[in-house]
């Protein structure tokens, strides 16, 4: 994860903080989807790179001062569940549950974009 952290500039962090929660979570979902696709193809290295990018984006979202305790608690639980999926033998959530969760944010972000036009 260190490699990805070094690539994130202050400008990137500042821009991330201008995104809505739906946009942030939708972007995280894109990385999670990439991780799942690489995992399905048997490419663990690329899957871990995508997962690490997603986890870093989770961390940036958790650092966003706009969100209170309850919101951060949900974000933390999603991050923890994702970690559990990839690193635990006892998977409580399936890949489909993650896709459904993140797709809801992506749909909301698309709706926000459409309403802004």
Molecular structure report:
With 117 residues, this protein is mainly alpha-helical. It has one domain (2-116). The protein contains six helices and no strands. It has helices spanning 2-7, 10-16, 21-40, 44-62, 69-87, 95-116. Helix 3 runs antiparallel to helix 4 and helix 4 (44-62) packs antiparallel against helix 5. The N and C termini lie far apart (36 Å).
Quickly list its features:
117 residues; mainly alpha; 6 helices
Domains counted in the coordinates: how many?
1
Shape: globular
Number of helical stretches of at least 4 residues: 6
Uncertain spans, ≥5 residues at pLDDT below 50? none
Give the H and E element order: HHHHHH
Estimated share of beta-strand residues: under 5%
Please state the CA-atom Rg, rounded to the nearest Å: 14 Å
The average pLDDT is 90
Helical percent range? Answer: over 70%
Q: Major β-sheet, in short?
A: none
Instruction: Compute the separation of the termini in Å.
Output: 36 Å
- What is the structural class? mainly alpha
Tally of DSSP β-strands: 0
Q: What order do the helices and strands come in, and which of them pair?
A:
Layout: H1 2-7, H2 10-16, H3 21-40, H4 44-62, H5 69-87, H6 95-116
Helix pairs in contact: 3-4, 3-6, 4-5
């Amino acid at each position: 994860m260190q490699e990805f952290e070094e690539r994130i500039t202050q400008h990137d962090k500042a821009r991330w903080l201008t995104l809505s929660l739906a946009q942030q979570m939708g972007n995280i979902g894109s990385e999670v989807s990439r991780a799942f696709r690489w995992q399905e193809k048997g490419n663990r290295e690329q899957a871990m790179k995508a997962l690490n990018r997603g986890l870093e984006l989770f961390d940036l979202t958790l650092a966003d001062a706009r969100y209170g305790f309850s919101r951060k608690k949900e974000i933390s639980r999603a991050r923890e569940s994702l970690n559990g999926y990839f690193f635990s033998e006892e998977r409580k959530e399936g890949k489909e549950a993650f896709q459904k969760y993140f797709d809801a944010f992506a749909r909301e972000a698309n709706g926000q974009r459409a309403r802004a036009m």
